[in-house]
Design a protein that fits this description.
Layout: H1 3-10, H2 17-22, E1 26-31, E2 43-47, E3 50-56, E4 62-66, E5 80-81, E6 86-87, E7 94-95, E8 101-103, E9 118-119, E10 121-124, E11 127-131, E12 154-161, H3 165-173, H4 185-188, H5 196-203, E13 208-214, E14 217-225, E15 230-239, E16 243-246, E17 254-263, E18 266-274, H6 282-289, H7 317-321, H8 332-342, H9 359-376, H10 386-389, E19 394-399, H11 404-411
Antiparallel strand pairs: 1-11, 2-3, 3-4, 4-9, 5-6, 6-7, 7-8, 10-11, 12-18, 13-14, 14-15, 15-16, 15-19, 16-17, 17-18
The structure holds FE2/S2 (inorganic) cluster and fe (ii) ion.
FE2/S2 (inorganic) cluster binds at residues 69, 71-72, 74, 88, 90-93.
Length: 423
């Protein structure tokens, strides 16, 4: 990828082409539980290079506003969240959830000039989402499948990833790495073990991709050998601008991620498990809370993974030698994050030498880049409406002469009214 394109893709601050593109979608900001109580403590939220504060007002509504007071710039993190607004602790200016200034004790007539920026928020799937784009362009709420399920059917976690969102998200698009870095983990992990999918993934590390562009982004059909007369296909979607879906393993819950820039050197890796057809079991929920599957254990009191770059991700060379952990790092999330962070905060994309298995990444980059540039000439970004987002990943065994695209036309279209296809 040339330098100009790479720079365009990795910069997401205010007024950058990629930043403008991402700001047209609802952005996950934090877990609803982080601002659980009305008039509770405000929480710092850094998203897309902006320093913001989230708080839940007395009416129970969440707001996301500039972190800094318009008067002389004190942080509202130290403010008082009371009576439907956050009051700066320094001289008492008060702001509503939309950023409007509602009180200037020393000069009430100045109120209308003292507002700060405020972004509309909604809550879906136990997450707070904000719309940070231009007024008048706010899209309908996000409609990826897990957003609209009852709380009993969904589990969501987030972890800090200490690198640019692009190299993190590309791990979600590139399913060829599953045969390598996750090779031994999938046998032990309670959210993956005991499935035929594992056997096929381990037996055939040479996944061959067929990729289709779609109204929402990309559909990837990854082919591995199945039984002598069949292929094992994994169907993965990437949705504009930051969603990836994971094909399921056996009867385990389905999965997905959202990769949201904090700034150009950090992102939130959101990990979601869900079942459209049933509540998650107590046992499944327990595993997720313990950090199994695509989740991870944390440094207590933070969203920083316990295995992080300061401790070399707790690498265990013996486990690597004994084939208990392919890279020596345990945990699916940290196996990915360790390698992605090891590239540096922003990978030097101009230096990489891509291979045929990277074709989906190349296509996603191009789609993001071209859309970001086209938006400068007034084009609209894709997949803003709910209809385009209602797709589901799948894993299936098909006779060798069956085209997966044909199969998908019958079994995966029609939105989400289809059964889950998984082996
Ligand atoms: S700095 Fe906030 S009221 Fe003065
Ligand atoms: Fe992975």
């Amino acid at each position: 990828m040339n330098k100009e394109m790479a720079e365009t893709l990795v910069r997401t601050g205010p007024c950058t082409p990629m930043g403008n593109l991402m700001r047209r979608y609802w952005a996950p900001i934090m877990l609803s539980g982080e601002v659980a109580t009305p008039d509770g403590p405000p929480v710092r939220a850094h998203i897309l290079g902006e320093k913001l504060i989230a708080f839940r007002n007395s009416d129970g509504k969440v707001g996301l506003v500039d972190e800094f007071c318009s008067h002389r710039g004190a942080s509202l993190y130290f403010g008082r969240n009371e009576e439907n607004g956050i009051r700066c602790a320094y001289h008492g200016l008060k702001f509503a959830i939309d950023g409007q200034c509602v009180d200037v004790p020393s000069a009430p007539q100045a109120c209308k000039h003292m507002g700060i920026k405020g972004y509309p928020c909604i809550e879906r799937a136990g997450m707070v989402w904000a719309y940070m784009g231009p007024k008048g362009k706010q899209p309908p709420p996000p409609a990826v499948e897990w957003c609209d399920l009852p709380p009993s059917h969904v589990f969501v976690s987030k972890r800090l990833q200490e690198c640019n969102y692009l190299q993190a998200m590309e791990g979600g698009i590139d399913t060829s790495h599953v045969s390598y870095v996750h090779r031994f983990e999938v046998d032990e992990d309670p959210m993956h073990q005991g499935t035929r999918a594992n056997e096929y993934i381990k037996a055939d590390g040479n996944v061959i991709f067929e990729i289709e562009s779609a109204p929402f982004g990309l559909t990837l059909y990854g082919r591995r050998n199945g039984d002598p007369d069949s292929y094992y296909w994994r169907v993965t979607q990437w949705l504009f601008p930051w969603f990836t879906l994971i094909p399921p393993f056996g009867d385990h819950p389905l999965g997905g991620h959202v990769w949201v820039p904090i700034d150009d050197h950090h992102c939130w890796a959101w990990s979601i498990n869900f079942r459209p057809d049933r509540p998650l079991s107590e046992e499944e929920r327990c595993h997720m809370q313990e950090g199994k599957g695509i989740h991870c254990p944390y440094v207590p009191g933070t969203f920083r993974p316990l295995a992080n770059k300061d401790n070399d991700y707790l690498i265990d060379r013996r486990a690597q030698q004994e084939k208990r952990a392919y890279s020596g790092v345990f945990g699916i999330a940290m196996q990915d994050a360790s390698l992605q962070e090891s590239m540096g905060p922003i990978q030097d994309h101009a230096k990489e030498k891509l291979l045929p298995t990277d074709r989906a990444i190349v296509m996603a980059r191009r789609m993001l880049y071209e859309t970001a540039l086209a938006m400068q000439d007034g084009a609209e970004p894709p997949a803003l409406n709910a209809g385009a987002q209602r797709v589901r990943a799948a894993g299936m065994l098909l006779n060798r002469d069956v085209k997966p695209q044909e199969w998908a036309k019958i079994h995966l279209t029609g939105g989400l009214d289809q059964p889950v296809y998984s082996i």
